[in-house]
Write a structure and sequence with these properties.
Blueprint lengths: L3 H11 L16 H12 L9
Length: 51
Amino acid sequence: MCSLETLIRVVPALGLVAGLDDLFVIKRPSIAQMEQAEMASQRQRAPRKKS
């Protein structure tokens, strides 16, 4: 395992900084996506049918 400090030092040394740019971009979901996520968290499973 490596520490965050080690990772921060190794990435520039290997020239991989550009590859990590997407990790630090805030992705803002649309209102529809947020509503869909909210609806998914409120769903409940139907009870099993007795056979």
